[in-house]
Design brief:
This protein is an alpha/beta fold and 292 residues long. It has 14 helices and 7 strands. The strands form 2 sheets. The chain has a 5-stranded parallel β-sheet, with helices on both faces. It has a two-stranded antiparallel sheet with strand order 1-2.
């Protein structure tokens, strides 16, 4: 059994911590335990309850009514939700639940069934992307147990690669981007998702890979002449110096625009070189790519 904090419940369900505390006071469906220092923690079962209740509440059910339903009745109500967005959110919740239980067969079956029904591109945009947003691993790591993270991200990585290989944009924007992860960065999921977004919107992508020295990026860039460079930093090594990386990229390729996204950009306060641009949120990334 996992032990989840109230912040975990907030992140995974979208329900604010103070609202969860009010639910605890007024209703009977949550009974957190407490550590020796009086900090709440919640079980797998309680997290699943919050996911179910949050979904029903969002689509019109009052908490006081939900509190009186049995577990079977709650599940019946969820399955009966007819709105397309509600059905997508239910599927994302089911993926979170199977991740928590480390039931990888169920996790992959949920994805595969949606892909067979709607296609890989819709699966990435409507299911995989919202799932990754909810559990936080597009932008950072350590929001979930590392074992759970590795199991689900390896499956999702395979699906995104299929999406990259099969997407055929209707129009091309005549832009070429060189994607890479610098030395010390091995987490590919964010950059692969960026690859999919760029290619699906008509940008030609050259992906060099993970943990690549700047001298190698310079060599490829001189050969391939991309319009810009792009990297996404999820969880770099402890000895990674972001300022040194930005300056090094500028010194080697001063005229080539460099776009950087990821968690590290949110906390960087120093001036960036003139060729560099930081995208500090997922919405910034999507807006930038959509405007190409």
């Amino acid at each position: 059994m996992n032990a989840f904090t109230i912040k975990d419940l907030e992140n995974l369900s979208g329900i604010k911590a103070h609202t969860i505390r009010i639910w605890e006071q007024r209703y009977s469906f949550l009974n957190p335990q407490r550590t020796d220092t009086n900090i709440r923690y919640y079980s797998n079962t309680e997290l699943k309850k919050v996911l179910n209740i949050a979904l029903l509440n969002k689509y019109g059910f009052k908490i006081s009514h939900i509190d009186k339903l049995s577990a079977e009745e709650v599940q019946e109500k969820i399955l009966a939700l007819s709105q397309v967005q509600a059905q997508h959110e239910r599927l994302v919740n089911d993926m979170i639940k199977s991740m928590i239980d480390m039931d990888i067969e169920v996790f992959e079956a949920l994805l595969d069934n949606f892909i067979m029904s709607k296609g890989i591109e819709k699966a990435i945009v409507q299911i995989i992307f919202p799932f990754l947003e909810r559990i936080g691993i597009l932008w950072t790591t350590n929001h979930i147990n590392p074992g759970q993270e590795h199991l689900v991200t390896n499956i999702i990585r395979q699906k995104i690669i299929v999406g990259i290989e099969t997407t055929n944009p209707n129009t091309l924007n005549n832009k070429t981007v060189l994607l890479f992860l610098p030395e010390g960065e091995h987490h590919e999921l964010g950059i692969l998702f960026t690859y999919f977004l760029l290619k699906s919107r008509g940008t030609k992508v050259i992906y060099v890979g993970a943990n690549v020295p700047l001298k190698d990026i310079e060599y490829v860039a001189n050969s391939k002449k991309p319009d810009f460079l792009y990297t996404h930093l999820t969880s770099v090594a402890n000895n990674f110096n972001f300022e040194k990386f930005l300056i090094g990229a500028h010194n080697r390729m001063p005229d080539l625009p460099l776009v950087v996204s990821g968690a590290i950009t949110q906390f960087y306060k120093k001036r960036v070189p003139p060729n560099a641009s930081l995208k500090k949120s997922l919405s910034d990334v999507i807006d930038y790519i959509s405007a190409l």
